[in-house]
Amino acid sequence: MLTISRLFSLLMPAALLAACAGAATPAPATVPVVVDDLAVVADGRLEPAQSLPLAFLAGGPVAQVFAAEGDTVAAGDVLAVLDNTEALQSQVAAAESQRANLALEQSAAALERLSAEQALADLNDSAAIVTAQAAFAVAQAHDALLKADRDLKNVQNPVSERLTDAVADAALALQNAQAGQQLANVSPEQQAHALAVANTDAAWRAYQDLQAKYDDSNGNLELLDAVKRAQAAYQSALDAQLALELQISTAATNQADAVAKAQEAYDDAQANLAAAQRGPDADKLALAQANQALAAANLADAQRRLALVANGPNADQVALAQARLATAEARVVAAEAAIPAAEAALAAAQAALENVELRAPFAGTLAAFDLQVGQQVAPGQSLGTLADFTRWTVATNNLTEIDVVRIQAGQAVTVVLDALPDHPLRGTVTAIDSVFAEQQGDITYTAEITLTDTHPLMRWGMTAAVTFEK
Hints:
CATH architecture of the largest domain: Beta Barrel
Distance between the termini: 21 Å
CATH class of the largest domain: Mainly Beta
Number of helices: 9
Helix content: 55-70%
Strand content: 15-25%
Strand order of the largest sheet: 1-8-12-10-9-13
Largest sheet: 6 strands, antiparallel, barrel
Radius of gyration: 64 Å
């Protein structure tokens, strides 16, 4: 189909040639080629950027209507619901609860399986440690039994070489202590003390003699110095004597204490030997026998425990752990098997609920919507149209094959609405159909233009002239 601009571009050169034919000027030898550089012009129709007819996917009586024609709604807003919505909502809630319960059961079963696997692994891993601990317990019980046996023999046979040796050793210790006490009377310290006493007496006499001479000298200073030196010598000799006396006294006390302790030890050894010679003590014998029996029983129990674990973990415990693991695995399998059916039931319930709810698929304005409560509707029945009037497009469907090759996506466009000729609008080519249509023998294509300008008086369906700028 030829556009007005295209027709004009073809007719204009012919008219000019006809006008020039009657002129007196000679015709040129060659006719110049006329180049068509006019912009492509096409017809279009104003449309919202997005529009969609509204319909229920299910049929039935309308229970509630939440919107009216002309209302602006957000994406996902419920516009109306059918009569059985509450029942379907209950089914969805029940299906969601069932799916959640299965998910919890699956998680719990998985945790139980992990715990059972760990318990079984621990039994196998700890077998060597348990065996070593059991062997150590046997060794300890054996040592305890040996000690209990020795203690029992000692109680049963109280008169032993140990007791007689103890008496002999105590007697020898007492004799040594007594001898030491006697030797202290003739020790070097005693001899040194006697000499110290003699020295002290000599120093005292010398000091007294010089003091008498000084008293008769009427204050002779030389005698006074001699008196002081004699007095110091006397004090030094006296200090040495007292130190020896303290040393001798301390040694004597220690020797006496040693003799007393040796005597006490000898008396105790004699008493123990005498008690042993009278026979075993009944209470000690009963206690030693009880300890020996307990030690024997402990050894037998430790040996029994070692026998149980010597060949690996306890069979009963392993069987119990394996049964626990099998039960947990069965729970996991059962939960996993039930989940697809629960998910399918939930999806079916949600789909059924969605079918009885009419929701806005996108944000826009209800361009046409006439629905009443109680109205009977059929699945797919058109109930109105939702359109997005925040953006506008113009669609042309009469671009010829000659015109379409001269435009491309992103190309600037000027749109003049027939109803608003004084308000040209700017736009951009956003799409060009690849598939052609045949109109009255012409091959045509459709292009979509997105407007960047708007006007408050724009209305859906207005016709427009579209100029594709070069």
